Amino acid sequence: MSTTLQGTVREKLGSRNARRLRHQNKIPASIQGEGKPNVDIAIDANEFAVARRRHDHLFDISLGEKTETVMIRELQWSSLDRSILHVEFRRVVRGQKTEVEVGLEFTGHPKGGVLNHLFTHIPVLCLPSKIPDTIEVRVDELEAGHPLLAKDIDLPEGVELGMDPDTQIALVVAVRAAETASEEGEEDEEGTAAVPASPEGGPDEG
Fold it and tell me: Higher-confidence residue: 180 or 117?
């Protein structure tokens, strides 16, 4: 299932025109990929916000008589008010699998240790309509010293792993080992702070 967004092709580019669009409650965007020319467009900010709240992944962008089927590739955010400054869309083909990175949601508590995350996102292959919001990873059965491998993750139906299945995703570190490592780190910091800086001209002579 996809969401239809109304878009208009941008004839004028540049930061000044982008600001003008945002004042009109529109978001500058671009469509790329599939060996076709890039298209610079503008979309309605409210319409896009509603789609994001529904966690939509697949979009049909209507550009007059032409429609582009796309997914979000990258969002550019404002550091001031966290508004979206620009959206980069990537063309996709319906019925054809595409690679996308999906976040991991670790649930539960490992046995006798602390979970050390090595990856928080993994690449997967699936149809655009099957892209999951997140992938749940239960860690209740993991014990200290045991790694969680990519192949151990239960993927949703229709979703394939897009990385080496033997890649370590997380590791359970024994509680005492974690505390010791933390203490050693604190001692190193204290030791470093206690060493006086060498004078720029070197040691005094005579």
Answer: 117
Return the residue matching tokens 């109304």.
Answer: 6
Residue-level pLDDT at 41 = 96
- Reading phi first (left if > 0) and then psi (alpha if -120 to 50, else beta), residue 50 is in alpha
- Look at residues 94, 112, 129 and tell me which one is the last residue of a structural domain: 94
pLDDT at 181: 52
pLDDT digits (tens, 9 = 90+) for 57-112: 899 999 988 999 999 999 999 888 888 999 999 999 988 999 999 999 999 988 87
Using only C-alpha atoms, the chain has a radius of gyration, in whole angstroms, of: 25
In a domain, 20, yes or no: yes
Task: Indicate whether 89 and 113 sit together in one domain.
Answer: no
Tracing tokens 């008010």 back to the chain, one arrives at 81
Q: What is the domain extent for residue 22?
A: 3-94
CA distance 171 to 148: 6
Judge whether residue 45 has pLDDT over 80. Answer: yes
CA distance 123 to 135: 11
In angstroms, the CA 161 to CA 181 distance is: 33
Segments of the chain assigned E as strands: 3-9, 26-32, 39-44, 58-63, 66-77, 84-91, 98-107, 113-117, 121-126, 134-138, 147-149, 160-161, 168-174
